[in-house]
Design brief:
Elements lengths: L5 H13 L3 E3 L11 E3 L1 H20 L4 E4 L8 H5 L2 H4 L1 E6 L6 E3 H27 L5 H7 L1 H22 L3 H10 L16 E4 L3 E3 L9 E3 L5 H6 L1 H7 L6 E10 L14 E11 L4 H17 L8 E5 L9 E9 L2 E12 L1 H10 L5 E3 L4 E3 L2 E8 H12 E5 L5 E5 L10 E5 L6 H12 L5 E3 L5 H11 L3 E5 L1 H6 L1 E6 L5 E5 L3 H12 L2
Parallel strand pairs: 3-9, 19-20, 19-21
Antiparallel strand pairs: 1-2, 4-5, 4-6, 7-8, 9-10, 10-16, 11-12, 12-13, 13-16, 14-15, 17-18, 21-22, 22-23
The structure holds glycyl-adenosine-5'-phosphate.
Glycyl-adenosine-5'-phosphate binds next to strand 10, strand 13, strand 16 and helix 13.
Length: 510
């Protein structure tokens, strides 16, 4: 079962700071809200995740290539893409607490509470009826449950319609009708609902008038769209083909909480797959399945993932799925798979006045390709790995340890090498071993404290293999290799360290 709780989340955040994974940005000045820095171990984990995603997309697919486009783009990009007009969140303020919320979040949280009541009834009934309990029948017939389900459905219908129609008055009405109170002030003293654009802007050059206004990109995808013809022509790409990119994106999130889950500056890993019109739904299915498989390959159990089909679509999409992850605060969006039709390319064609059509040698037709997008937040993926990995273990000898069960191939440090004592030539031997390994693996040398303490420190950052150099090493060139999760130790020749680590890292990839 997935491990969720607020308490666990707090521990993970504290652990991430204590062991150099994630720090609050500008902590010295009391921090900058919803902006974070990655520390010495965090940056390694992040780079390993990026590397795995990049290889999975670009290296393992003949027809997907990479791109690194600039963060600043011509401002008309954002008019064409619809972000200037439609990249808004409906916000509402509580007049007493002066806190601002996303109106749809408040309503969704209300529905989650109703769902919580259903779950409670099911739990009670299961306890009462024991083995004879028929959950399906109970959900369909229990009066209270049926009433809650009807309420959820009716609220959801109103919410989806209000969002589709951009009917802010109806959103406010829903909040009033449901008697939603501000969690801080406890009052229902709300303002009207207003739209709030999420893009940051700044100015290019020295003039400070509006003609120089540029935006910090809110998604990396537009850099791919405006370069699609450049890449297609110079790479002689044939449809279907993809362009992948990893880079920073910026959103002025109002409700920015939950650590690195919702940030104002974050990183995306996106891939746009250009396809022949009419084939997009097949490719949409294909990429949905591929991405689920990819997540499974990380070695995190299946029950941590859930697919969610969007009813309320972004302005550019005609179909969308989220891959949700069981974070400590519940199931939340990790990755989006979107069918974006020809929305973006056609809009850029219109706004730029340049043709972005593709001549298909097979059908001998020119057309604007359709696009299927896979878009994952690197920071959210990082958080999923971190929150899955965190374990507090009671050991057989009664002691406790905190171990980060990070999939070994993603671990920040792969091999730690310890001389048993700081004398008798053992440190020199340990350094010699590191010198032989460091071109293949990120290694770490440690000689301070007793061996047990050194193991604990590396458990806490998720190092999968610890090598100990002892006096026997000097006689027969063997060392012990200790595996993080099982804590099992084997005696092996020094020459075998590299192939064994290589083998085990590959085995551990799901
Ligand atoms: N190009 C499509 C796009 O940007 P999105 O669903 O808005 O779609 C894609 O974002 C992914 O980016 C999300 O699934 C999430 O992982 C990540 N993401 C979005 N906003 C984020 C934020 N404020 N902080 C961290 N990650 C975020």
């Amino acid at each position: 079962m997935a491990k969720n709780s607020e308490d666990r989340f707090k521990k993970i955040i504290a652990h991430a700071k204590e062991y150099g994974f994630v720090f609050q940005s500008s902590e010295l000045y009391d921090g900058l809200s919803a902006v974070y820095d990655y520390g010495q171990n965090g940056v390694e984990l992040k780079n390993n995740i990026k590397d795995y995603w990049w290889k999975s997309m670009v290296q393992y697919h003949e027809n997907i290539v990479g791109l690194d486009s600039a963060i600043f783009m011509h401002p008309r990009t954002w008019k064409a893409s619809g972000h200037l007009d439609a990249f808004n969140d409906p916000m509402i303020d509580n007049k007493d607490s002066k806190k601002r919320y996303r109106a749809d979040d408040l309503i969704e949280e209300h529905m989650e509470k109703l769902q919580g009541k259903i779950d409670k009834e099911v739990k009670k009934a299961r306890k009462r009826f024991g083995e004879d309990f028929d959950e399906e029948k109970f959900l369909a017939t229990n009066e209270r449950v049926v009433k809650y389900k009807e309420q959820i459905e009716s609220i959801n219908n109103r919410l989806v319609k209000a969002l589709e129609d951009e009917n802010l008055g109806e959103l406010k009405q829903l909040i009033d009708d449901l008697e939603i109170v501000d969690p801080v002030s406890g009052t229902k003293n709300w303002t009207d609902v207003r739209q709030f654009n999420l893009m940051f802007d700044t100015r290019l050059g020295s003039l400070s008038d509006d003609s120089n206004k540029v935006y910090l990109r809110p998604e990396t995808a537009q850099g791919i769209f405006v370069n699609y013809l450049n890449v297609q022509k110079t790479g002689r790409m044939k449809i279907p083909f993809g362009i992948a990119q990893i880079g920073k994106a910026f959103r002025n999130e109002i409700v920015a909480r939950q650590f690195i889950f919702r940030m104002r500056e974050f990183e995306q890993m996106e891939m746009q797959y250009f396809v022949r019109p009419g084939t997009e739904m097949d490719w949409f299915e294909y990429w949905k399945n591929e991405r689920v498989k990819w997540h499974r390959s990380l070695g995190i159990p299946d029950e941590y993932y859930k697919l969610y089909e969007h009813e309320n679509l972004a302005h550019y999409a005609n179909a969308a799925y989220d891959i949700e992850f069981a974070y400590p605060m519940g199931f939340k969006e990790l990755e989006g798979i979107h069918s974006r039709t020809d929305f973006d390319l056609s809009a850029h064609q219109e706004y730029s006045g340049r043709k972005v059509q593709y001549y298909d040698p097979e059908t001998q037709e020119s057309y604007v390709p359709y696009v299927v997008e896979t878009s994952i937040g690197l920071d959210r993926l990082f958080l999923s790995v971190l929150s899955y990995a965190y374990e507090e273990e009671k050991l057989d000898d009664g002691s406790e340890r905190i171990v980060m069960k990070i999939p070994p191939f993603l671990a920040p440090i792969k091999v730690a090498v310890f001389p048993l004592v700081r004398k008798d030539g053992l440190p020199e031997k340990a350094r010699e071993i590191i010198n032989g390994l460091k071109y293949d693996y990120n290694c770490h040398y440690e000689e301070k404290d007793a061996i047990g303490k050194r193991y604990r420190r590396h458990d806490a950052i998720g190092t999968p293999y610890c090598i100990t150099v002892d006096h026997q090493t000097l006689d027969d060139n063997t060392v012990t290799i200790r595996e993080r999760d099982s804590m099992k130790q084997d005696r092996i020749p020094i020459d075998n360290i590299s192939p064994i680590v290589w083998e085990r890292l590959r085995e551990n990839r799901g």
